[in-house]
Design a protein that fits this description.
Shape: globular
Number of strands: 0
Number of helices: 12
Distance between the termini: 37 Å
Helix content: over 70%
Strand content: under 5%
Length: 272
């Protein structure tokens, strides 16, 4: 709710736009409108991550891998079908709240993907998971289990914050460099995330339950067997990421050209 109310202030903090010129004012208006529309997706993603954790605990890896596929299909559906519908049928408030009905269709596809992703995961877990979730909702919020979970979360929150600070700093720099810089940065970041998502996250998700079970079995101690499993996971990720890194370094122009260079994305954008 706070994100929707203070969307314009959040956008201003993430960029170098201060609202002094006409272009800055228009940028803040457009970005804030889309931010308000997209903010509920954050809650959907958080809930999806919680359900994903339950799946890892139960050794159900397939649904965690399939859910993002549904999410991406919904984005394609939004771009292909919802966008034309919004262009032709969008109510007047859409045009005054966000920059373009076309972008509203794409944003709606993202929200739809978040909903479908969460529903698919919950459905795959079965009715027992849903009943257990309802019982948790009506418990006292600060139960010992929740306090312990928050304590265990703290190191991960600190580690993840570094990436978010990086996004804020990079966005501020990019918005000060003129048109196109934010898109160049975003497209490059997506390519960078591809091997991380394919290999790093996959290996980490598969190894986490095994490592947790080993540590619990050894009463919180890091045994030689646990250390060996962790070392094997790190080695496996390194052996997959090094060839991926070299591939992107040597073929970056070709990859960007094949994936992105069409429409308004020019050869100059590929170089950038």
């Amino acid at each position: 709710i706070l994100g929707i109310i203070y969307a314009k202030e959040f956008v201003a903090a993430l960029t170098s736009m201060v609202g002094e010129t006409a272009s800055d004012i228009q940028f803040l208006h457009d970005a804030a409108g889309l931010t308000r529309m997209m903010f509920p997706f954050l809650g959907l993603t958080i809930l999806s991550a919680v359900v994903m954790g339950v799946g890892l605990q139960r050794d159900k890896y397939f649904i965690n891998a399939a859910a993002p596929v549904v999410f991406n299909l919904a984005i394609i559906f939004g771009a292909t079908f919802l966008t034309p519908w919004f262009v032709d049928q969008a109510p007047q408030w859409v045009e005054t709240s966000v920059p373009s009905s076309q972008l509203v269709g794409l944003a709606a596809g993202v929200l739809l993907g978040g909903i479908l992703q969460l529903v698919l995961q919950i459905w795959f877990m079965g009715s027992g998971f849903f009943r257990g979730t309802l019982s948790i909702i009506f418990r006292i919020p600060w139960s010992p289990e929740i306090r312990r979970t928050l304590i265990l979360m703290t190191p991960m929150v600190v580690a993840a914050s570094a990436g978010q600070i990086n996004v804020v700093v990079n966005s501020n720099f990019a918005t000060s460099l003129g048109a196109g810089a934010v898109s160049w940065l975003e497209f490059a970041f997506r390519l960078f995330q591809l091997p991380v998502g394919l290999f790093g996250v996959a290996v980490g998700s598969a190894m986490l339950p095994s490592l947790a079970a080993s540590i619990e079995r050894d009463k919180g101690e890091i045994s030689a067997d646990t250390s060996r499993k962790l070392q094997e996971a790190v080695e496996l990720v390194i052996w997959m990421l090094i060839p991926s890194t070299m591939f992107f370094v040597l073929t970056s122009s070709a990859v960007v050209h094949i994936l992105y260079e069409y429409g308004q994305f020019s050869a100059g954008d590929t170089i950038a």
